[in-house]
Amino acid sequence: MKEFPDLEPEYAGLKYEICAMLFKTVGGVSIVVPGEFKSSKNTSCVKCNYKTASGNLFLLKKSLIFINKPVLYIPISEIKSAEF
Q1: I need a surface site. Which of 11, 28, 61, 63 has the fewest CB within 10 A?
Q2: What is the reported pLDDT for 54?
Q3: pLDDT-based confidence at 1, cuts 50/70/90?
Q4: Taking a C-beta distance cutoff of 8 angstroms, is the pair 55, 71 a contact?
Q5: How many domains does the chain have?
Q6: Is the same domain home to 42 and 75?
Q7: In terms of domains, do 41 and 74 share one?
Q8: Same domain for 27 and 68
Q9: Lowest-pLDDT range of 24-28, 45-49, 56-60, 62-66
Q10: Which pTM value belongs to this model?
Q11: Following DSSP, what letter does each residue of the chain receive, concatenated?
């Protein structure tokens, strides 16, 4: 059995932050978490459409991610224009 010396017996804080830390420590997998953006409804995303698919657009620090089918990861450096 593999040992993980960086793990604590208990954690307190936001569930998604604890989960992200555990995935990175135990599984070696990094997780993308929302940035500090909050919509007018106090959510971390805005509803939008990509072609005919509706989904949620998360504004991260250096990229955007559209969650639904298809999942799209868009680095800010690749954005040429936006239409609202």
Answers
A1: 28
A2: 93
A3: low
A4: no
A5: 2
A6: yes
A7: yes
A8: no
A9: 24-28
A10: 0.62
A11: ----TT--S---S-HHHHHHHHIIIII--------S---TTS-SEEEEEETTEEEEEEE-SSEEEEESSSPEEEEGGG------
